[in-house]
Amino acid sequence: MLPINETMGAYSELFMLLAAGTYTVAFIAFAWDLAKSSKMLRAVDLKAAAASGAAEAEASRLPVAAGARTGAAAGTADRADADVSGPAGRAERPSSSVTAAAPASTTGVGQTADGGMRYGAERRAPARVAVALTVLGAAIHAAGVLTRALGAGRVPWGNMYEFLTTGAFVAVAVFLLVLIRRDLRFLGTFVVGLAIIMQVAAAVAYWTPVGHLVPALQSYWLIIHVSIAVLSSALFTLTFAMSVLQLLQSHRQKTVAAGGGDKLGFMRLVPSALSLENLSYRINAIAFVGWTFTLMFGAIWAEKAWGRFWGWDTKEVWTFVIWVVYAGYLHARATRGWTGTRAAWLSIVGYLCVVFNFTIVNQFFNGLHSYSGL
Amino acid sequence: MSERVNVEKKTPAPGPETGAATTPANGKKAVAAAKTEAVLPALGPLGMLRWAWTQLTSMRTALFLLLLLAVAAVPGSLFPQRPANPSVVTQYIKDHPDYGKILDSLQLYDVYSSAWFSAIYILLFISLIGCVVPRAIAHYKAMRSQPPRTPARLSRLPEYGTLVIPADAGVPASNAISDAATLLKKRGYRVDVRDRDGARPSVGAERGFLKEVGNLVFHTSLIGVLVSVAIGGLFGYSGQRILVEGDTFVNTLVGYDQFTPGTNFQSSRLQPYSVQLDKFQVTFDRESRGKFGQPIDFTADVTTKESPDAPAKKEVLKVNEPVSLGGTSMYLTGNGYAPVVTIRDGAGNISLQGPVVAKLQGDNYYSSVVIKVPDAKPEQLAFAGFFLPTAFITEEGVSFSGDPELMNPQLTLNSYYGDLGLDHGVPQNVFELDVKELSPLNARDLDAKGIVLAPGMTHTLPDGKGSISFDGVKRYIGVDIHHNPGQLYALIFALLAVAGLVTSLYVNRRRVWVRTGTHSDGRTMVEYGLLARGEDHRLAGEAAAIRKLLAGQWQLGGEDPSAAPDGASPEPTEADSIQSTAGSSESKKDQ
Description:
The complex is a heterodimer.
Chain A: H1 6-58, H2 66-80, H3 102-106, H4 125-152, H5 160-181, H6 188-204, H7 220-257, H8 273-306, H9 314-332, H10 341-364
Helix pairs in contact in A: 1-2, 1-4, 1-6, 2-7, 4-5, 5-6, 5-7, 7-8, 7-10, 8-9, 9-10
Chain B: H1 5-10, H2 17-22, H3 25-37, H4 44-56, H5 59-73, H6 75-78, H7 86-95, H8 100-105, H9 115-144, E1 159-165, H10 173-186, E2 190-194, E3 202-207, H11 209-235, E4 237-244, E5 248-250, E6 258-261, E7 274-284, E8 295-305, E9 313-318, E10 323-325, E11 328-345, E12 350-355, E13 359-360, E14 367-373, E15 381-388, E16 391-393, E17 399-401, E18 410-418, E19 438-442, E20 451-453, E21 458-460, E22 466-483, H12 487-506, E23 509-518, E24 524-533, H13 539-553, H14 574-590
Antiparallel strand pairs in B: 1-24, 2-3, 3-23, 4-6, 4-22, 5-7, 7-8, 8-9, 10-11, 11-12, 11-22, 13-14, 14-15, 15-18, 16-17, 18-19, 18-20, 21-22, 23-24
Helix pairs in contact in B: 5-9, 9-11, 10-13, 11-12
């Protein structure tokens, strides 16, 4: 057992504070990007709509209102969208090409962003600043997590404070990793905002000085079981955000298609509901495998520590409930009438269970897991 | 994860919603009217069964049961559960006289063995079997059959493209199709060439049968896990025992303090191994401020014997490091102090000597002590009080333990005499003393005051009732002994389930068709189409890869498929001109 180094612990707390501060600035930049880009896109849209309206008038047809024109186009935008290898029971043609959507969405009539979620040609300065700041924040955060580990002489996930700080880091890191391949910057406010909340909660409500682990947690299974749980939770966080946006977007797409006003202008930066659904399904599939491992490794560890691999301990119950809800989600995607909005709700409910399992169950429910450092 | 579409198609749901849902609103009334007039044929008992089976095995029901299972599991975390801690349940019912009993009648203290929870998971597993078996049969047939026939219009497939081999390349349509078949076979496809020497030869190819195999393995393994858990419940057993340093546990029924047998347990199965606790050491945290005095290591040195005649073996028992013996595992689950006392009765004889297990009550091993001395004569004696490893007394006179280690050990007791009630055959909790029938000898509010002892001290009881000596302190450990024969199988099935899950999620089932033909000007026209079964976001990548392979085979170079003229389809007939334009516009889109 390595000795405690309190100086390292103090440095770690400083890094955590600095990381939270950097995230706050990044959050503002992400919010600014949403506001600015949606305004710009709206201007482009209006110009394009006016142009097409004029063209139609020239063609001596019935004068078509710009709104109706874009509305009709929105209906087809979904079809032309990439990534529509949709779930069972979907009317869309199953195509898996990921490059096609750009013309439909950037020429002005598209009401949503590119379904392939690739980086577009136009520069979004505030978004770039925001991502740069997030990278900086994550680097400081990594230093904080590392010094915490060095200070305690073990893996930095042995109590609520460490779950929160390390969990926030993993969520941001996973987000940044996905950003390398996909333009998910529209999720920036959410992910960075959540990281700030977690950091603040850790510092205010769950602050714990560096310390040794109780004997029950001294096992290599702590490294395996908890790291996979945190990683899966980070992925579930992403899909939760995407499912919420999917619900908003599908409502907005319906409203706009019906000729209604577009009250959620910032949603232009967000891809179509179906693209969101497809990507969140793919991420959820990975996270579900991760959660299955969490459950299994937890059971193996439980057998080592308590003599039984499953005993319906409160934490076990909720881990099982989460597993079943996400299993339901995966099945829903293959069930008629359960795709789309209902599947999104299942994904949201699953994530709420994850949050409940982490907060309420850890603190207020009596069980074998309640030694989480409180 | 898995589409039940084909199965559902085979068994059209007799429920009204399939028809009515698609009918426009005004047509609905007409349908309803027709329904009331129509005389429904009687299903009969067999028909009813068939209908119920169809309903139960439908995906919709399975999903509903799955979500219901999640909901039903929740109450088990809200209310105390009997299997985990029966005494907490009893206390809970006492504390909530208004609804405690009602909850009990709803089996909310035994959620996971309750009728309703069992009903849900049994129905779910029946539904699962009803789904897996037909699918396994269907898949077995699919695996043994040839890839499906080539569709007339490949351009309608989600991925479609064309290639043109120049006339001077010398690759006739039949050779081109053989090449395509070879390439696809190399890529892991099962291929079937049709009409090789005809005018329009084609090849059908399919791969990814493992996807459905993985899916079936996953679901079957879940049944396996359930069966393994049931086996553990039938043939397993578990028990607890407290061992003071120097004590020996022998694995027989009487060796246990508490024993929970499985339904089919036989005591002859217990292998009489023995475990002696030689020494138990605890390390406390003396470094960090926040957790000062928190235990950070428990180590029990034990001597084990597989059988009474076997050689003794030194082993170490720790938390997270159980000791395995005779098909069971022994786990370190608790520990504490056991003060060693000697009690003499009124006649001056030693009526009790040895360690007394003190039950943990609060911080720093603040523990309660109950000593019952039924052998004391002329009157039985009893003591109840506290043991403090490091005794401190506040200014208000409240004693507490300042440290978990034995800095200033103290035994604070009240004493009683009278009939302990142990001779009537009614079992009693050794950690509790009912003083209603007893007369107090020593207590804080009596003239004789309470007994306060440090190691080595002796206190003489008033009225010549005897004496008590505090000789020293030993440590004790609590161990759980478990035997679960289903455990290994549960692990194997769980691993199989994960393997199946990953396979079913990441293997893609794809079909590819290639058709060739010779153009009137001598060029060989090639068209290909891809179709995925289930979700497959990498189908476009596969199409590009196949295109590259075909182009490489015929040295066609990086020709842009969208640049191909509309007549590039190997079907230059009039009827096909419409399709071919459609096809090329598709391929343009796909770029």
